[in-house]
Amino acid sequence: MTALALAGELRSYKLPNGAKLVINRREDTEAVALHVWFKVGSIYEDYQQKGMAHFLEHMLFNGSEKYPYGQIDYIVEGLGGNLNAGTSKEYTFYHITIARPYWKQALEVLYQLTQKPLLLEEMVEKEKPIVIEELRRGKDNPTTVLWEEFEKLFYKVSPYRHPIIGYEETIRNFTREMLLEFYRNFYQPRNMFIVIVGNVEPEEVREEVLKTFGKEEGKQVPKVQILPEPEQLENRTKTIKDPRVEKTYWLVGWRAPAIGTKEYYALVVLDQILGNGRTSLFYRELREKGLVYSVSTGDFGRPKDNLFFVYATLDQEKLPQVKEKTFELMRSLREKLTHEEVQKAKERLINSEAFALERVERDAYYIGYSLTVVGMLDYYKYFENNIRSVRKEDVIRVLENYLLNKPYSEIVMVPQK
Amino acid sequence: MKYIILLLFFLSLSFGGAKVEEHTLSNGIKLIIKETKGKGIVSGVIFIKSGTHGEDKRGLTSLTASLLTKGTKSFDSYQIASTFEDYGGSIYASVADDYVEIGFSTKVEGLHKALAVMKSILTEPLFSEQDLEREKRNTLQAIRSRRERGHELAMDHLRGLTYRGSNYEVGPLGLEEDVKEIKREDLLKRWQEILKAENIVVSLVGDFDKESIMGELRKAFEGLPGGRYELRIKDVPMEKDLLERVKRPGSQATVLCAFDAPPFLSEEYFAFKVLDALLGDGMTSKLFKELREKKGYAYAVYSTYPTRLSSPRLIAYIGTSPEKKEDALGDLIKVVKNVEITPEDVELAKNKIVGDFLLAHQTRLRQAWYLGFFEIMGFGWRMDEEYPERIRSVSLEQVKKMREKYLKIHHCTVVEP
Q1: Dihedral of CA B31/B32/B37/B43: which sign?
Q2: Size of interface A-B (CB pairs under 8 A)
């Protein structure tokens, strides 16, 4: 998660029950995005619960106190809105994008969906084959397998090593009681962030939120110990042969500064220089020189044990050359990187915000991510300033301290002929 | 279902809200411009009616388009990319079955340079031997890589099955054996053949002052060659049910079926769009309710009615476990052909289409795309304004009539382990 900007008029509230509410009033749009985020994802699960955060997300669509199973979909789609949800390793969120006149109905839907679900036994059983189909669908795609294997190699202790969707054997054993316990622990006001972006009157929104989400009682959120990943001492390599792939996939990663830290902004600029867009170094030197079919870089935006990766697709016989060239390009950056290039990368990042924020749901996502995962709205508010303050030396320091002088983990997926 | 009436409010809202202007340049190019208010950003799409029609080597147009942004007589690849990326924007060129599309985003202050680059891309592309060889290798790999994913493999086979004898038989990437044979002269010839002013629509949406950019637009596009590239359109009607099975290792079976549908430039188009949405768009759709929620066959199931110049089809998809595939296939056909349709279903489908359509207009790039798309396909750009109302006015009887008249024949592809 990179590009952010402070657009519109931002208001932040803490409700008496502990829930946080952020409203970004924007007059440039007729769409309203309503998001409800919970600080819970797959890293909060113990082994028996693997896949539960995601399963619960499915279950919330299976009926609430006010709206029987299926009705919520009819309401939102009937109003021409989009309702969806997502589960990650750190968070789960539910969101609606809808035309301005209907934001109140949408808020009520999200309230019922997240705070008044029935979680019926029969629905748990109905949902299991659907989620297992989703899991198998993922396994059917070689790139999903690639990324799962990558995290499994990269993280040896941290719960980041498990896939969000869980495992067939854990999913099959879920019971209503297990789900209820997980739900009660995490789906409550003190673990909740409500974000609304659009041309709305903040005071009116606040009142409406108090009448819905504000009624729920805030309780202590159980502290889950998320094991930190120990330092990696040497390079790790794993090769996977897959009969379905036609080309070689190379994915290499390093530990990276946590999102929101000072060093993180230098990493974002480095990422822009190395692999973001067609003006980036890797695109020019690897893709345009015909060494790879595609190349990109990025980080996982994690609050701890973050990772930075380089991802390329290529012909198997070119891998040694590509690997050598990739490292050589990074090494030579220490001497060759100019102030102008850093300045240009910063400008590109900052300028791209205006495009990212054209969609209200994107804006709401950035705010929700800042609150829930980074743990501070300042990340959203001051992103641009923080990027502006990155200097060439900061970029080189991150390059040296995190990438060049540290061990990496790499996955190579090759065609099985 | 009182809430449905509310949607009428929605129709009076528009994103961006500005008036659209149409100009025809002296060479015959259609220019559509829309002035918006915002943070000083602009997006544009140039459509060239052509696509894969009339290709003698399959994949020629796609390869030609892929080289457009790789260098011209005045700008190299990096200069082209940086013209847009420096302002946080981007540029792309791609090919669909019926048109070539070149889209871009930039800041208004970068528009002058952007138009100079666009002009150069259109009038003096380099098509260098070196770039051609590299992009050929990329294209060949991209064609082979479609076998990596069940859905893409199934789609390619379905094309071969249902569009046999028309240009849609092969996807825009083309055939390996043809791409290998493509020479620089082929690209030059193809580009010269399709770059005809009467086949071109330029659509521009942004925070500019209309009056002040007209001169620049003329300068950029008025020099393009006049005349027309005539498309030899061949319609291939569906005659009898067909089923093809394809083997691929994996954890899922992919089922894709094509059904007969009405031609796009007819009154029936809108009623059929509603029928398609009712059958396979979103969580309230029949396929979702019956095949996912009731039967638990799948995580993902949908239908789509792609807008193509000829050989209209409705295409339905389900991804399921291998042991469920026969039931899933049978029930998918049954739902599409026989499921009961109520007045509520029709209202809901209409609201869903209109809501999605309007929400999709949040970005200037999508706004420009829709205006240009409607124009190039022959509806006229005004359809962008009229579309919601055309959908709204569809009746239950019309939808039922569509079902009686079409969806009689199916062509199915099953990719299975």
Answers
A1: negative
A2: 193
Residue B255, φ and ψ in degrees, nearest 5: -115, 125
Residue A227 lies in a domain: no
Does residue B36 sit in the same domain as residue B150?
A: yes
Give the Cα separation of B240 and B243 in Å (integer): 10
pLDDT digits (tens, 9 = 90+) for A2-49: 333 344 689 999 999 999 999 999 988 899 999 999 999 999 999 999
Q: What's phi and psi for B150, nearest 5 deg?
A: -55, -40
> Smallest CA–CA separation between B103 and chain A, in Å?
14
Of the candidates A117, A65, A106, which has an alpha carbon nearest to the alpha carbon of residue A83? A106
B222 to A13, B15, B112: CA distances (angstroms): 55, 30, 15
- The amino acid that residue B56 corresponds to is D
Q: CB B145 to CB A100 under 8 A?
A: no
List, in order, residues 6 or more apart from A7 with CB less than 8 Å away.
A24, A26, A353, A357, A363, B39
Q: Nearest chain B Cα to A102, which residue? A: B6
Which residue segment(s) compose the domain that A367 sits in?
Answer: 236-415
Q: Which residues of B touch A352 (CB under 8 A)?
A: 88-89
Pairing outcome for strands B313-320 and B253-260: antiparallel
From residue A387, give the alpha-carbon distance in Å to each of A59, A256, A258, A346, A348: 40, 17, 15, 6, 11
Does any domain span residue B295?
Answer: yes
Name residues whose C-beta falls within 8 Å of residue B407's C-beta, 6 or more positions apart in sequence. Answer: B259, B260, B261, B314, B336, B337
Whether residues B216 and B295 share a domain: the answer is no
A181: burial class by Cβ within 10 Å (0-12, 13-18, 19+)?
Answer: middle
CB pair distance less than 8 Å for B86 and A344: yes
Residue tagged 């208001």 (tokens)? A11
pLDDT single digits (tens) B212-226: 999 999 999 999 999
Q: Which of the pair, A9 or B381, is modelled with greater confidence?
A: B381
Length of chain B: 417
Residues A195, A266, single domain; the answer is: no
Q: Alpha helix (H) ranges present in A116-201?
A: 121-139, 142-154, 168-172, 176-186
Nearest to A72 by CA among A116, A32, A35, A33: A116
What are the chain A neighbours of B149 within 8 Å (beta carbons)?
Answer: 140-142
Cβ neighbours of residue A417 closer than 8 Å, sequence gap 6 or more: none
Which of B284, B325, B366 is most worth mutating to test chain A (most A CB atoms within 10 A of its CB)?
B284
Q: What is the mean pLDDT of chain B?
A: 95
pLDDT digits (tens, 9 = 90+) for B123-135: 999 999 999 999 9
Q: Are B267 and B198 found together in one domain?
A: no
Decide if A193 contacts A172 (C-beta within 8 A). no
